[in-house]
Design a protein that fits this description.
disordered C terminus, Chitinase A, domain 3, about 20% helix, 6 helices, Thrombin, subunit H, alpha+beta
Length: about 250
């Protein structure tokens, strides 16, 4: 059965540049390691997408409507529908010393910031650096190999997925929540207490839930701090006490 706009789905995909077959993004840890894209701390897992909401590139989003759960599909996206054509006017030579003065030692292929804009180092020589301010994938045809691994049906599945989307570094199973009438109460696990930006994440969760599950009128986040159990004082050693008294 084909998907519809507004469906909550999990997708696995690997994205390549058609011209070079170079993989630039994947949800598979195995593929990331094979293609030397693996980053320590990166989370490799199926990606949550609400169909039609623009959470992925528009042409890919539009193609999801025609996909079926469990069936692999290939989506080809031309440059004009991806990151646009490559603009020669966005390539500039700048003095090398302007980068080294900021503590940057450029290398070919490196992404650097220059005058508030990100650029890719294309070449280095004669005291100058060639910077390309085009998006890295500009002018490229992209190929996505996609499989819709699951369609989320229940509100409980959708709530859990929206929470995990904002705080992916904590296992989804550690979040406990209850939905009573129009009030959702989310118990935050201890693992989240010291996550950087957790307050912003909670705000994002609330906004997502109110948008995609509008019947929820109130959202509560509960953080419970438990005191450490007190260690019982050791009884005094009578032998030592008596010895001290006699002396």
């Amino acid at each position: 059965m084909a998907l519809q706009k507004g469906d909550f789905i999990l997708i696995d995909y690997t994205a390549k540049v058609k011209e070079t077959n170079e993989v630039f993004e994947t949800t598979s840890e195995e593929t990331a390691k094979k293609e030397k894209l693996y980053k320590e701390g990166e989370i490799y897992e199926p990606k949550l997408v609400v169909v039609g909401e623009g959470w992925v590139l528009k042409p890919l989003d539009e193609s999801l409507i025609n996909m079926e759960v469990g069936k692999a599909a290939t989506v080809e996206i031309p440059p004009e529908k991806a990151f646009g054509p490559r603009d020669p006017e966005k390539i500039r030579r700048v003095p090398l010393k302007q980068l080294t003065a900021k503590g940057v030692t450029p290398a070919i292929g490196m992404r650097v910031e220059y005058n508030g804009k990100m650029a890719t180092v294309r070449s280095i020589g004669a005291g100058r650096v060639l910077l390309d301010f085009n998006p890295p994938l500009a002018g490229k045809t992209l190929v996505y190999e996609v499989t819709v691994s699951k369609k989320l049906g229940t509100n409980e599945e959708k709530i859990a997925a929206l929470i995990h989307r904002r705080i992916p570094m904590v296992e989804a199973e550690k979040f406990k929540f209850t939905l009573q009438e129009k009030t959702l109460t989310i118990e935050m696990p201890e693992d989240t207490f010291y996550v950087e930006g957790v307050q912003i994440a909670k705000r994002g969760i609330a906004l997502d839930l109110q948008r995609y599950l509008p019947k929820i009128a109130e959202i509560k986040f509960v953080e419970t701090f438990k005191s450490e159990p007190k260690t019982a004082a050791k009884p005094e050693d009578k032998t030592e006490t008596q010895a001290e008294t006699k002396s």
